[in-house]
Amino acid sequence: MKIIFSRKGFDSAAGGFPSPVYGDESLVSLPIPEANPQPGDLRYADVDIGATSLGAIVEQLSEGRVRATDPVHLDPDLRAESLPRADGWRPAFGQAGSAQGHLARQNVGPGDLFLFFGSFAHAVNECGKHEYRDKGARFHALFGWLQVDGVLDPKLGSASLPV
After folding, report:
1. Contacts of 153 (CB under 8 A, 6+ apart)
2. pLDDT(28) > 90
3. 84-105 burial by CB neighbour count: b if 16+ within 10 A, else e?
4. What is the mean pLDDT of residues 31-55?
């Protein structure tokens, strides 16, 4: 089994600010904005974190630089409760281009484990207003994992590749 550490979510390079950690120590990894938006794309406002819209969180923490209506790249997609789901939904993670090529050259496949980490900072939600407690106190943390069940080729749709 291979263990792959994969940096995801907002940071200084993607989004410009860390994801929040709230007082109950719950981590909310903020997915990055969609780089190549298309009509009908998922928006931050479409994604729920508990009873709160992800749109409200990103808009307030970014001080309006990222809007609730901006398209979002939800990858990895780990939370069943974030969106309405079809029966049989399972968490997913995808790579393309050079990142996928690198994983293929390393023979990443079924049974291997991805550990997702990102940049975080402590935040508060007081009366529906999200803000950082200390903007300078950032740290990295693990926020999720997936074990590879199968590898899909985006050009072939849902056909599994031999591993």
Report:
1. 159, 161
2. yes
3. eeeeeeeeebebeeeeeeebee
4. 91
Give pTM, 2 decimals: 0.85
Cis peptide leading into residue 110 (ω within 30°): no
Question: How far is residue 139's CA from residue 125's CA, in Å, rounded to a whole number?
Answer: 19
- In this model, does residue 14 exceed pLDDT 80? no
* Residue pair 11/48 in contact by the 8 Å Cβ criterion: no
**End-to-end Cα separation, the chain, in angstroms:** 13
Q: How far apart are CA 75 and CA 94, in angstroms?
A: 7
Amino acid letter for position 141 = A
Residue with tokens 């693990």: 142
- Measure the CA–CA gap between 132 and 38, rounded to whole angstroms: 31
**pLDDT band (50, 70, 90) for residue 154:** low
Contact between 138 and 18 (Cβ < 8 Å): yes
Helix (H) or strand (E) holding 105: helix 97-105
- Find how far residue 47's CA is from the centre of its chain: 11
